[in-house]
Amino acid sequence: MLRSVKGLACRSLKLEHGYGLPPAARGCLSSLSSQDASAPEKPRAVFHTSESDPAKHTERHEGRHYGIPLEEVKAVFPHGLPYRFQQQIQTFNEARVMVRRPALELFAYLRSSNLAQPAVRYVIYGERGTGKTMTLCHVIHYCSRQGWLVLHIPDAHLWVKNCRELLQSSYNKGRLDQPLQASAWLKNFKSSNEHFLREIKTQKKYTWGKRESTEEGRPLGEVVDQGLARVRSASDAVGVVLRELKQQSHRGSFRLLVAVDGVNALWGRTTLRKEDKSPVSPEELTLVYNLRKMMRNDWTGGAVVTTLSQTGSLFKPSSAYLPQELLGKEGFDALDPFVPILVPNYSPREFESCYGYYLERKWLQHEKARTEDGKAELQFLSGSNPRQLDRLAGPL
What we know:
Keywords: Mitochondrion, Ribonucleoprotein, Ribosomal protein, Transit peptide. This protein is of the alpha/beta class and 396 residues long. The protein contains 14 helices and eleven strands. It folds into two domains: 1-154 and 252-344, no CATH class; 348-396, no CATH class.
């Protein structure tokens, strides 16, 4: 384990200096620090920025909150955002995301990527509650604003546990379909990418049954509609959508972001059981089998951005957070080589910003919480961990 930790540290250090990256990506991190920080702005407070376009976020915006219009939240994130953040949106009647360095690093990498080369895999990792999912959401918003087609899996662990309906695949008897999960994903995918689904055409004919088929050259949206109209076909429809996007991304007519929250679920154990009570392996699930193919770097025209999640890792120690620990050997080897992106706890600047935002929104009601001593106590008790600070601030 010590050797693994050292290996990751060395690898991260090399990446930090641009070693081992494609030429176009070298210097991305250094470019962040060279951004012009002289131009002043007039936010409503020092912990806000009026710049709502993620593509324009730079180091001078770091630690500040930017707003996403609520109608845009529904369009870009139809799957929903993290539960605690959804609660915050409802309470404050606004969606504000903090600009943090891990997201800025990813923006720099994506800007300089040569999409004619094999897709680069990025793995966002960090201790529990540091903001990995929100970093991924910031990246999704960035790519959406830049006109990318976003293939978002908001929680891969939901595909490997607590499945209410598990059916034998009609396409491959050795695999199992999850029609409810598949149809729910298709509905949200259609909602956020409908214009792409009208433009992208199928490359072959797909037969769904004795009387139903989708002809070659038809809009990909018809495949999605087939999965929604005939839930039994939903898992196969997801597979067709992923296959078509992967095979056509090299053409340059669209840029493809594959964003998976909790990617370690694809190689972990499941809680699912077959009819004979034997455990189900992840690769036996049609959805997981097809999503694993998207994790390979054998396609061009896009990028793969993932997070590692402890929340759904039922069979891993709660303290585990390193890629080797959560991915295991099989998952690590499947994603290697990848660019690790560490999301740490709040820096002093970020803590001040979050604390100031809570004060402004009157989220901290206790009179002592508004004092310097109260602030210091919140910082100590939370350890500057975003999730812990949110939980501590709620009852105050």
